[in-house]
Amino acid sequence: xxxxxxxxxxxxxxxxxxxxxxxxxxxxxxxxxxxxxxxxxxxxxxxxxxxxxxxxxxxxxxxxxxxxxxxxxxxxxxxxxxxxxxxxxxxxxxxxxxxxxxxxxxxxxxxxxxxxxxxxxxxxxxxxxxxxxxxxxxxxxxxxxxxxxxxxxxxxxxxxxxxxxxxxxxxxxxxxxxxxxxxxxxxxxxxxxxxxxxxxxxxxxxxxxxxxxxxxxxxxxxxxxxxxxxxxxxxxxxxxxxxxxxxxxxxxxxxxxxxxxxxxxxxxxxxxxxx
Length: 275
Hints:
There is one protein chain. This protein is of the alpha+beta class. It has 2 domains: 6-48 and 68-121 and 230-263, Major capsid protein gp5 fold; 126-228 and 267-273. The chain has 6 helices and 14 strands. Helix 1 packs across helix 3 (94-121).
């Protein structure tokens, strides 16, 4: 007999998962994928910006411009994790067993989806250089922001994602920690729920999943606009129990089906050494 209730454990994993995701919360939910499974492919459109508005003249009709997009094919992934709990251990520490299993499962699931989104963003065409692989400056961020031209209102950004090696660099930026600077927000520098603070009003998140290139020995930083990255779920996080009666144990199996993509090429700038 299993002492674990699937619905209780599932609620625990989902709650902890929401608290562990970092990059996923910066992505746009593009809807569910009905009737599709692992290995199936779907198309994510990338929309091009239409031309400038034109001054109208009396009696002269506007010429309609068709919306232009390119299609990219993305494969649906199924990711999962199984945890085994023995009755003998569960009887003596049921709360700890469930909580620890749910916590660790949530962490690895969240890290996997975040890493997939980061892998999508690495391919963004806007690339900006940093002088060092393990440091970044405010001047380098500002130069990278020039890729957006004048389209850089703070409310248009989802966030900045950095590797933890760059935390000391942000501590050294007066725009980030100097209380006398008008762009500094109280509490900057205190890491909470994956967020380090705000850089000129843009939230800064810390993630080590896919944000360091071992070959090039460089951290990879992302400046992300809203709607630049997206995902579709074919199946939200699901929990199943598989009883191993001969072992007097229960396997807790967690999985999810989803697809991720970079949907706006001009919505992400990548900063790294020798970009």
